[in-house]
From TrEMBL, chain A:
Molecular function as annotated in GO: oxidoreductase activity
UniProt protein name: HEAT repeat
Alphabetical list of InterPro entries matching this protein: ARM-like (IPR011989), ARM-type_fold (IPR016024), PBS_lyase_HEAT (IPR004155)
Pfam families per the UniProt record, alphabetical: HEAT_2, HEAT_PBS
From TrEMBL, chain B:
Name of the protein in its database record: Glycosyl transferase family 2
Keyword Transferase: yes
Native organism: Mangrovihabitans endophyticus
PANTHER family named among the record's database cross-references: POLY-BETA-1,6-N-ACETYL-D-GLUCOSAMINE SYNTHASE
Gene Ontology molecular functions: glycosyltransferase activity
First and last residue of the signal peptide: none
The organism's place on the tree of life at top rank: Bacteria
KW Cytoplasm (keyword) present: no
Membrane-crossing residue ranges in chain numbering: 15-37, 348-369, 389-412
InterPro entries: Nucleotide-diphossugar_trans
Coiled-coil portions: none
Keywords, alphabetical: Glycosyltransferase, Membrane, Transferase, Transmembrane, Transmembrane helix
Amino acid sequence: MAGAFTAVVLVLAAVVATTGAGIVGARLWRQARRRRQAELAARPRRHLLAFAADHEAQGADALVAIAEPAWRAAEPGALGLLGKLRGDAHRALAAVFVRRGAAARAMAALHARGRVRRARAAQILGDLEHHAAVPDLCGLLTDRHREVRIVAVRALGRIGEPTAAWRLIAALDHADGLPSLLATHALAQLGPEAEITLSAALDHPAARVRAVCLDALGLLGAAGSAHRVARVLRDDPVPEVRVTAAASLGRLGTPAAVDPLVRATDAAEPVALRASAARALGEVGAGAAVPALAVMLGDAQYRVAHEAAHALRRLGPAGQRALRAAREEPADAHATGSTAAMHAREALALAEIATTAARR
Amino acid sequence: MSVDLLREVLRAADWAILCYFVALNSGYLVLIALAGVEFVKHLRRSPFAGTDDMFRSPLTLAVSLIVPAYNEGPGIVAAVQALTSLRYPRYEIVVVDDGSCDDTFDRLREEFDLVEVPRVIPAEVPCRSRVLSVHVSRDNPQTLTVVRKTNGGKSDALNMGINLARHPLVCMVDADSVLDPDALLAVAKPFGDDPLRVAAVGGVVRIANGCTVVGGRVVEVAMPRRWLLRVQVVEYLRAFLMGRTGWSRLGGLVVISGAFGIFRRDLVVAVGGMDPDTIGEDAELVVRLHRHLRARGEDYRVVFVAEPVSWSEAPASLRALGRQRRRWHRGIAEILSKHRGMIGNPRYGRIGVLALPYYVLFELAAPFVELSALVLLPLGLWLDAVDVAFAWRFALVAYGYGLLVSLAALFIEEMSFHRYPRWGDLVRGVSAALLENVGYRQILTVWQVSGALAAWWGTTAIWGTMKRQGFGEPPADAPKPARAGRR
């Protein structure tokens, strides 16, 4: 038994020593690698920065001429820069990547076996805003790995090709579908040309699809769809979709939104919808909403009264008059919950701070 | 005859204890290996993580940062300034001054030009204390809110912050923590990628002592000068960074640090907020969330993000360390006692059948077993139940395996995040892993046992005081009452 015990101790000592040596070895390897990478990347980095500043043809040629090992060392930095650039500077640097074959390699990697390779390729193609990759990226929207689907959505948004809209919408309806907020942002990035597709999808049978499209229309500022959004607010059978429709109408800010929103504040409607509608009325900025909001100030539900008060604050002089009138109402001395006067005081105090700050 | 029997019992007990140590350290080793796999996965994915897209998106979920503060005068302004410069598209800071006796509020008022506002505060989660006043920054009323209230403890302060929070995510941050600039983006990202399932995300907490902090940012990472702190650095790496990452990968994360964790506000409200009667309120909230969501049969995730990090000051004296560890172990004992119905209960999935039984066996019981070993092994020697050869081999295996676990954690850290760039720090880290076994672990067991016993005997919880050294600045003179149990 003692012999076996001793053997265990010796094995343990050997493993401990090996792990210690592994720590030192890992540090040495990493430092050597970092030095080598830094040396290789130094020249390309200088060229990159100069090119980002003036993006002239000569600079592009110099970047294309950089030897492959040096470019590989500088590539993470170059991709980071690409992600930050916009407009001509972005297009010029993306063209350099394309000339170096990055787009072709990424297109091929979209079909790689490894999910990390597919996701990386999608990211690069998105960063390059490579329109030719849209059909293949749309194919990745149904990839079996969620992380690949997520990168594909972002890439499609970045590229901004409106024809991808219906594929994004269709992908939302799959089991374990795309994250809603991500899809909404991508759809909004597709631009006004996607409005018709988004508007048509308001009749989609899946509630989540309708909610995403409503949000995207709001972000796009698609005022032409306001009536369809108002119809969803009025008729949709799913309360959460109606809440989203109210928020979307608020973003659209058209006068046509006021009446449907005021109707949505009715006491018989769900609390979340009434709060969302109140907030939206403040964003629309229509004085016609003041009477309805003033009534909501005294609502027993905190969220409803709170949103109504701040909507009135945002409505300017007319709204603030209503707040001042409510402030004068005698508050219950023992009140701990929502009362019109208390909410009005809060909103007016913030309005006063904003006014003072603006004057300064 | 009775002496022979006693010897047999002692011999068996010593063997059982040895087996326990082997099982304990094997468990740690498995968690560290899982963390290693997770880190590789994380690093391979960082080029397409989409953090910049998240920062640019107008739809990124807004966050309310809740900062409970009790007598944080010397550091509160720097802490809030650091929070205001975090890289995140939309967030507010809610500082809850929990009845401070010092100038915490005065400093905030002066620096941020605070103005009092009448605020209607919903009572969505219960608060025991009374609100004295609510203030906002005149320059940016939507971003900074400071509420003054009567003293009620950290949980009560957090509950007040939750009630005041306007955004769908609430992030709890200690007033003396320093966050990496991208830390909020990183911990909020799982909510964007998997919004329907992610319920809470924990961020990693590392030790700030020894690091250089400028303008609320850790600009240079270094090992602390004192061995007591160096040992804690290794301990944090092993237990918090690796251990929690491993549990997250197993789907059994039950502890999210109160110093840096983010939750869906609606869920926190649904479970009733923080429990003011539990000293380990952060872990208790997570266990309660598991209980609530499992009971409703919901598909959900509680995730741990290994980087970037929140930096926090660790106790630099034995006295403060003792108080902290008693508190932590008391917290474990209270939580396991409160939620004992979940332990081993298949209804609660991996939490019930894996994570909580592990916490009972290898977190709660470990100091009791180690203390038994410290008593029974010498007793066995004295009674000739075991011989000297067994005793030293026993010690070598038990502590050698522990050393191996710590070195494995250092190895994974070196291969993944390597936050300590100096060779000297590497040597100090390895040395601390070795020294941890000599004295530190033994004294820890005594504190932990006393913490657990205090929970079971129901003695009054004492938060104690902790003298802050400050980050990269001359040590502060005045001792600071530490209201917060830091995990």
